[in-house]
Amino acid sequence: MEVAQSGSRVKFGRAFAIGIGLNIAFVAVEIIYGLMANSSALLADAGHNASDVLGLAFAWIAAWLATLKPRGKYTYGLRKTTILVSILNALLLFGAMAAIGYDAIGKIREPQPVAGDKVMIVAAIGVLINSVTALLFIKGQKDDLNIRGAFLHMAADAAVSLGVVGAGLLIVLTGKQWIDPLMSFIIIGVILWGTWKLFTDSLDLALDAVPRNIDIRKVNAFLLEHDEVKEVTDLHVWAMSTTQVALTAHLTVPGSQRDGFLELLQRDLSRRFGIEHTTFQIVPENSNGVNDCGSKGDLEHLTDS
Questions:
Q1: Which of 206, 234, 249 is the last residue of a domain?
Q2: Cα–Cα distance between 11 and 8 in angstroms, integer?
Q3: Range from 98-107, 240-249, 253-262 carrying the lowest mean pLDDT
């Protein structure tokens, strides 16, 4: 599931390049015709697509940085740039939506004529471009969370552009100019709904929270299922990037273990939880059945609030 694989990087690097190129061209068209048609809905979609261009570019750069080997003071490499970029993308979207909302409020106070036919034509082009961009990532989205995010984002953009087409059609049929800023607010609401989740999830990962798709209590129970493991302490699970998860733990075990015990644990954690980077510290069990450090372990951090 890692973008770090060279074949995947080359393949989807081309997809990123094509998607970015198509969307840059479309943003220019939307801005020009949005101003000509006096459409805040079209400008809202342009602002959103501009943020998507930056988002795709940042994601591409971060995916490349994540493949660089650790060196110097960056002992984990630059994998966490993928998380930082997710936060940056969310902040860019918040800013773009604030600007579009301000413009839409102004047009509600002072309604202005909107060329609904132009809005429909340009937004229809957006449906086509965003759909094509989404299709570029459709194969990889099944195996790579980063690629899946790009696919879902562009598919959502196609749906938003379709909504703008509907606004243009309603304006042509009814002549009601308030439909345009109203559609802007609907678009803003849809985008903010998804952006808030992106922001909070990314912030959690940046603060080394357990990734949302992993239940640390189940990880702890899974480790204790093995006969050799008598106690688990100092269990930590965190995201090294948006696609890579790390785990460290102290395991209290008897004096002898079966051959390949740790390798088996690592394979099982990878297969069951998607945790690829694991580090264990073995704590020998003394005759009293507790670890040599005398600690019973502190599992309070496993109870989420």
A1: 206
A2: 5
A3: 253-262
